[in-house]
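Researcher: Sit down with what I've pasted below and flag anything odd:
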Amino acid sequence: MKKTLFITAIIVCLFACQSNEKYEPINTTSDIHVVLVEEVIQTSQYTYLQVKDGDTKNWLAVIKMQAAVGETYYHKEGLTMTNFKSKELNRTFDKVLFLDRISTSPGFSENNTDAQLEEPISTGSKILLEKKEIKIAHQKGDITIESLFENK
């Protein structure tokens, strides 16, 4: 199994390294937006990006990812929310576009989520559990679980 996987990887590398192929530029369709990041705000679950899309500025919200000012991203339409109040930021956005996918390459497809798959910063907040010692006073006539199992 390992040998087959190794040989397959070598063959893929050999074909991928050929540079005599002609590359055609990828034409973005009208439903794909090209945006330039102007501001990044990180929260525990989301990354908010203020982007410039042509002449307009918009706020995008995506699952937490690494992003920097000046980067270019490609995305399709998402869910637009107006007067969105972020409890974590204690801020109200006039309009936020929530996206399920964003890409760093123009060849955007359903499987191309490279910007969000690089390395997640956070997988969410963890719930802290405290172990507490509790004591229950028994009353006369109470039946314990132990006695129930003994008297089966």
Notes: The longest strand covers residues 33-42.
